[in-house]
Amino acid sequence: MMTLNVLEELFVPGSHHTHEERKRLEHSREDAGSNDPGCGPIDLASGRVVITLPAEPAVLPPRPRLEEDAEAPSRTDPEADA
């Protein structure tokens, strides 16, 4: 690919990679917000990670039992067949 002039490509072979890196950086996305070190969940400089737990545990509520189910034995219950 001859995007740069021929003499530059002959005498400075790394210029092609520099040009490609500049093009890549132009298309890189930068998130808006604070980019200060140590403000996110992972702080590489200090070696700390902040983990926040949910307020309530993720446990399903007990399943309500119907009166019919409580009186009649289950068909898959091996003790009911004995």
Describe this structure in words.
The chain has four helices and two strands, in the order H-H-E-E-H-H. By secondary structure, it is mainly alpha-helical. The protein has a two-stranded antiparallel ribbon with strand order 1-2. Strand 1 (42-43) and strand 2 (48-49) form a beta hairpin. The longest helix is centred in the first third of the chain and has 13 residues, at 15-27. The mean pLDDT is 71.
Compact overview of the structure:
By secondary structure, this protein is mainly alpha-helical. The protein is built from four helices and two strands; from the N terminus they run H-H-E-E-H-H.
Task: Present the secondary structure layout.
Layout: H1 6-11, H2 15-27, E1 42-43, E2 48-49, H3 67-71, H4 78-81
Antiparallel strand pairs: 1-2
